[in-house]
Specification:
Blueprint lengths: L7 E5 L2 E8 L6 E5 L10 H7 L4 E5 L17 H15 L5 E5 L1 H11 L8 E4 L10 H8 L1 H5 L3 H13 L8 H8 L4 H16 L2 H8 L9 E6 L7 H10 L4 E5 L6 H4 L1 H12 L3
Parallel strand pairs: 3-4, 3-5, 5-6, 6-7, 7-8
Antiparallel strand pairs: 1-2, 2-4
Helix pairs in contact: 1-12, 2-3, 4-8, 6-7
């Protein structure tokens, strides 16, 4: 198993955010955002590859991974975009390069379009950015969350593992599946899992609001997608690339929604080629 530990903490408005930095601290900054229901763990291989040329920042969103989880957290995309802006200020980063996956894409887009947070370049990976999104499980559980919260622990664990597995096209190594599901186990983790999932279903109005600003994005954008994504189909990626002026589209074959897990080398190469020399 590859060790992945976030060594630093930041006291944000939604609780402690765990974060880390890889590579030369004096190199050009690059920030990686994860999505739902994942954590920065999905970036471990890509982050190490990018850190050869960049100062790479990774973090777990509030309510995810090793960051704080509590029943009173506002886990809306809008609130998380605010925490992202806080983190950039804490790190002292102005116009970093940003790579964002899944709902991390909506957070990065919202921070830029809605809050005016500047980037140098933006790469969106299987990003939540246009409705509809999510698997059939996402819809069913979101509509019956109170029932699923009461599942016995072993049944929740089995259901969770099946759900996360569907995000990958070639399949996940057992230790990867263990790492991705571990934060959502136990009474607190189980409650947190369904809490954040219900919140994601309530975020469509936020997407509707920020999507009007996509046409005004004035920076280089790369849209990367897994060709076999069953959670957010590649057609959403094509639509997103068409809405952002000058955006490039890169579809990776034999990859599902978890593109950073399914094809980390191909994704890292595409991102490095897009970023160019700082």
């Amino acid at each position: 198993m590859v060790e992945w530990t976030l060594r630093h903490g930041f006291a944000g408005t939604l609780g402690e955010v765990r974060w880390d930095r890889l590579g030369d601290p004096d190199a050009a900054p690059l920030v990686l955002l994860h999505g739902t229901p994942f954590s920065s763990f999905i970036w471990r291989d890509v982050a190490r590859a990018l850190a050869v040329r960049r100062s790479v920042y990774v973090f777990d969103m509030p309510g995810y991974g090793s960051s704080s989880m509590s029943g009173d957290q506002d886990l809306s995309l809008d609130a998380l975009a605010g925490v992202f802006a806080e983190l950039l200020a804490h790190w002292g980063l102005d116009r970093p390069d940003v790579v964002a996956h899944d709902s991390g894409g909506a957070i990065a887009l919202g921070a830029h379009v809605d809050r005016g947070v500047p980037y140098r370049r933006l790469a969106l990976v299987d990003a939540v950015s246009l409705p509809p999104w999510g698997s059939e499980f996402f819809t069913v559980v979101g509509e019956n969350a109170d029932v699923f919260r009461q599942l016995p622990g072993p049944l929740h664990r089995a259901l969770l593992r099946e759900y996360v597995t569907t995000a990958s096209s070639p399949g996940l190594h057992p230790y990867v599946l263990d790492a991705l599901t571990a934060p959502w186990l136990g009474p607190e983790g189980q409650a947190a899992f369904y809490r954040q999932l219900v919140q994601r279903r309530a975020d469509e109005s936020y997407i509707d609001r920020i999507r009007d600003g996509y046409a005004a994005i004035d920076l280089p954008v790369l849209v990367c997608w897994g060709a076999d994504d069953d959670w957010v189909p590649a057609e959403r990626g094509r639509e997103l690339a068409a809405l952002i002026p000058g955006a490039d589209l890169h579809v990776v074959p034999v990859a599902g929604h978890l593109l950073p897990e399914d094809r980390p080398a191909e994704l890292a190469a595409a991102v490095l080629g897009f970023l160019g020399d700082a």
